[in-house]
Structure formats: structure tokens, C-alpha cells
Amino acid sequence: LYKLLYDVKAQREALLSGRVSNSRGSENEAGWTALWGMKIPSKIKTFLWRLARQSLPSEDVRKHRNMTHSDCCILCGVEDSWKHSLIECSMARCVWSLAGEELIEAMADTQEPSAKFWLFSLNEKLEKPQFTRLVITLWAVWTARRKAIDEDIWKSPWATHDFVSNLISELTILDRKDTSSYVTQPSRDGTKVGCAWKTPTDGSFKIKVDEGHTSD
After folding, report:
1. Cβ(37)–Cβ(123) below 8 Å
2. Residue 181 reports pLDDT greater than 90
3. Binning pLDDT at 50, 70 and 90, where does residue 148 land?
4. How far does CA 215 lie from the centroid of its chain?
5. Helix or strand or coil: residue 192?
6. Comparing C-alpha atoms, which of 123, 126, 158 is closest to residue 140?
7. Residue 79 · residue 71 · CB < 8 Å
8. 3-state DSSP call for residue 204?
9. CA distance 8 to 110
10. pLDDT tens digits, 65-101
11. CA distance between the termini of the chain
12. What does the CA dihedral 139, 141, 143, 147 come to, rounded to 10 degrees?
């Protein structure tokens, strides 16, 4: 009887483990698809990839790799981690205090130890503009932090906040320009299919390039 109960328990645990694994696998795939589909600079996507893999050189990671003897934050002396460096450190807190309350509340409510699933969870919770601001601010905080530590160049929280806002505005303008370059054309039956090149305005010109061909 004991062996039978043990076998049943083992089977149930294996089944539950498989369900959790499959669920995380789907979340993992959807999360990466969302991140790679964002219209942000490649260097920010590279930063997010490193963050998701928890390979950013925070002091705890550097100590684990035998690159330093201490895992304490160089700026404030508290035990360092990806979350401390990007969110909890006094330098980061000053920047986040300038962000919107809804974004800050969503970050505070997402208690996920994994950087990857923390990002994926927030991507599901937040609207696209808010999530874009989140990831760009994370990158800007990390960049300002490394400038302070490596080069002794200090950037004020307002300067970092303004930099993020200006970058978002530039990306929005570029996105609108890309979208306005194409217009949908109605087919013979009245449905909209495909895209066609939009006629340029007076005094300007456009060059259509076939991406399927390259030249040396």
C-alpha cells in the first residue's frame, strides 16, 4: 500500500511539474517574441537580453565569477543584484521617482525573482507606451550607473529622465514616419490588401529598395 501511494504521488508530482514547465515554456516564447518585436534600438534589446539572462555585471554576478571579493553595491554599500542596481539603489530610485505612479505601482506589485519573467510579467500588465518607457528607463539607469562607477561621470536624475523622454519622442516620430510611407490599397472586390508606396509630397522624393537584392 505504501509503495502504491508513493508511486501515485510521484506520478502526480511529475504531471504537475510538466504542467508548470509547459506553462513557463509558453510564457518564455511569448515574452521573447514581444521583446524582440519592440521598436527600440538594438543596443537596448541587447541590454534586455543580458538582463533576462541575469548576466549584467552587478556586484553579485562579478563575485560569482571571481571578479571581485565583495557583492556590495559600490554606490550605496547594500548587497547588489540586478534588481538593486536597476530599481532599489538610491541612484535608481531618484530616477524612478520621476516616472508615472501607475508604472511604479506595477513594478512594485510584480514580485518575480527572475529578471526574465519579471520583464515578461510587466509586458503583460502594462500598455505598450508604458512598457517601452520601462525598458528604456532600465537601460538609461544602467548606463548612468556604469558611467558613475567606471568613469566617475555623474548624471542627475532629471537628466536621465529627460533623456528617456526625448528618446521615446524620437522613436515615436520615426515610427509614425515609417507608417505614413505606406498606404493600404483596396482590391477589386473592395477589401484592403497589401501595401503600396505612398506618393511623396511636393519638393521631396523617395527611393524604393528591394530588400531581396544586395550590391557589393
Report:
1. no
2. no
3. very high
4. 34
5. strand
6. 158
7. yes
8. coil
9. 35
10. 999 999 999 999 999 999 999 999 999 999 999 998 9
11. 75
12. 180
The answer to whether 26 touches 19, Cβ cutoff 8 Å, is no
How many angstroms separate the CA atoms of 124 and 168, rounded? 20
What cell was used for 168? 521615446
* DSSP code at position 214: -
Distance CA 162, CA 160 (A): 5
Residue 25 has a CB neighbour count (10 Å cut-off) of 10
pLDDT at 206: 52
Q: How far apart are CA 79 and CA 163, in angstroms?
A: 28
Residue 34's alpha-carbon distances to 45, 96, 123, 126, 129, in angstroms, are 11, 23, 8, 12, 13
Q: What DSSP line would sit under 70-119, residue for residue? A: --B-TTT-SBP-HHIIIIISHHHHHHHTTS-HHHHHHHHH---SSHHHHH
Say if residue 52 is exposed, middle or buried (CB neighbours under 10 Å; 0-12, 13-18, 19+).
Answer: buried
Q: Report pTM.
A: 0.72
77 CB neighbour count, 10 Å cutoff:
9
Length of the chain: 216
C-alpha cell at 196: 503600396
Which of helix, strand or coil describes residue 62? helix
Q: Which residue has the cell 563575485?
A: 63
